[in-house]
Predict the 3D structure of the following.
Amino acid sequence: MNLGPVPQVVAARPRPRQPRRRGRRILAGPATGRPGPPKVALIPACIGRIIGQWAVASAEVHDMKVGFIGLGNMGAGMATNLLRAGHEMTVFNRNAEKRRPLIDLGARAAETVAQACTGEVVITMLADDSALRRVALGEDGIVDKLRQGATHISMSTVSVELTRDLTQAHEQAGQRFVAAPVFGRPEMAAAAKLYIVVAGAPAAIEFCQPLFAAMGQRTFPFGTEPAAASLVKLAGNFMIAATIETLGEALSLVGKGGIEPGTFVELLTSTLFPAPAYRIYGALISQSEFRPAGFAAPLGHKDVRLLLAAAESLRVPMPIGSLLNDRFLRLLAQGGESLDWSAISQLAAADAGLPRIGRS
Ligand code: NAP
């Protein structure tokens, strides 16, 4: 499996968020992939060039016609932020009820996937490979319905393999495809604070940047091959899941020894481990807060399975990944479907003979 050249991590400049008027339109030059207005062709070349440069620079504030598919824990907040940023939104969700809050804020309702594919961009934030494969590659799906030159931004966490299939299908259909999975839980999605990992053609990424700026605090480009973004996202989630497992084991140890887990977490996150993953999951685990699930256990298991598939394909042994797979299997086998993925930490407590972390 060749992912192309080693991606360079170049953090994009965070862009200031500006209030936008709905429906505002600007000229868009060829660099945006959109047809320029006829006036540009009728004026001298030097002025046309100046207008062209202005159009490229102004692409940042262009309000786009965007379809959004998948209004779950993450997608609801992301679509809301795009709407608030002034983009013209059409929203689709399998369970149509979830469209209601967006419609109340001014979004159009799509009754079918096809109706969400009439704009210049369609964004997907679906649960897993099977949902995205059906929505994008199925009959009357995105590839069938999106017009040539329009862009599909795939923001779900999905397999490297599916990301490749989508890259190829969109290319054959004359459409653009950008993979842009995210780091950050639903609270960060709602607050437009996501970290977005992007890969795809540079012009397509540049074109999508205003949308990323409306949903996230920072965008990290990982080259031109969309599959690279999926691999990076899976590797990152592996590290978070491993953090959850080590927190579960360490907190079970100190808890069984009579130490208050919250105090232990406070020490570690104030000194050697001040990272968000330790702070967020240290708090959830020490307080045993696994409902409602911000990131549900079946999705966590899905990510570990996709990680192991990528690792197998690249022939990279990941023994901790295998251990995590067993942890998730056990949690799900014991009825943990509706719990947050950080509930795997409780399995370490059970191994130690504790009813749960923090309770002896
Ligand atoms: P979620 O709340 O379970 O939402 C999943 C969405 O996918 C819903 O809109 C659901 O529609 C839709 N869906 C599921 N199966 C479908 C199918 N067969 N056909 C059509 N639509 C289907 O999940 P989430 O937490 O928002 O996560 C979405 C994606 O982001 C996942 O890939 C996840 O791994 C990733 N992610 C999540 C987090 C997090 O903290 N939650 C963080 C980063 C990345 P219904 O409403 O009809 O069920």
